[in-house]
Design goal:
This protein is an alpha+beta fold and 238 residues long. Helix content is 61%, strand content 12%. The chain folds into two domains: 163 residues, Ribonuclease III domain (Ribonuclease iii, N-terminal Endonuclease Domain, Chain A, Orthogonal Bundle); 66 residues, Double Stranded RNA Binding Domain. The longest helix is centred in the first third of the chain and has 22 residues.
């Protein structure tokens, strides 16, 4: 309690503590740990911050913890559903697009912008959310982290029942359509570039040898999904 009081009112990082309290609902004891959760690797080796750890290790930890919490939550919520259903539901919740949306709704961009270099991308939001989960786990341990994630993140920002009938794997939908109508769908890397020191991929979707759509993203699989969505809309595939 004393440490939290110090962090909120006296610490040199009290502005961070107050932002965290507004967004998360609590003041952490270990402010440096939570600062690291929003410190993107693009800031490494830039002026004045050489040697500062980025959030990749916390992201790695948070990814594993979040997946476990979601798996346990779904296992208890759907006692009659089989492994296939549970796996698909977990994938819908922990996939990058969902995490990006949750992080945006939580307002994590406010914190991430303080410790990032250049323009923020959607994927950076999801990465920061995973790193944040890692920091919460190190701060509180598994049980309190599980309760917080379920009550303050999953139940606040995800409509689980709506996810049951949602299929937004556009690449899978497109490939199913192609198989049904005897079409050949190919995904080709058109270009690879650098933006803010990060790889950016441009992927094209080709049907029977003709390019129908293309999309760019920092993640190749995400670019394929975006391009597939464009094809589905263009061809009005149900």
């Amino acid at each position: 309690m004393i440490r939290k009081f110090f962090n909120y009112y006296i610490s040199p990082d009290k502005e961070l503590a107050r932002k965290l309290k507004d967004i998360l609902g609590f003041t952490p004891r270990n402010l440096k740990l939570f600062e690291q959760a929003f410190f993107h690797k693009s800031m490494n080796n830039t002026q004045g911050i050489t040697g500062h750890s980025n959030n990749e290790r916390l992201e790695y930890l948070g990814d594993a913890i979040l997946s476990t919490i979601v798996a346990e939550y779904l296992y208890k919520k759907y006692p009659l559903q089989d492994e296939g259903f549970l796996t698909k539901m977990r994938s819908k919740i922990v996939k990058r697009k969902t995490l990006n949306r949750i992080a945006d709704r939580m307002g994590l961009d406010i914190l991430l912008s303080d410790y990032s270099h250049g323009k923020l991308s959607q994927s950076m939001l999801g990465n920061a959310l995973e790193a944040l989960v890692g920091a919460i786990y190190l701060e509180f341990g598994y049980r309190k982290t599980r309760d917080y994630i379920i009550e303050s993140i999953l139940m606040q920002h995800i409509d689980v029942h709506k996810l049951e009938s949602l299929d937004d794997n556009y690449k899978s939908l497109l490939l199913e359509w192609a198989q049904k109508y005897g079409k050949i769908v190919e995904y080709k890397l058109i270009a690879k570039s650098k933006l803010n020191k990060r790889d950016r991929f441009k992927v094209g979707v080709f049907i029977d040898g003709s390019q129908v759509a293309s999309a760019e993203d920092f993640n190749k699989k995400s670019a394929e999904q975006i391009a597939s969505s464009s094809v589905i809309n263009k061809l009005e595939i149900a």
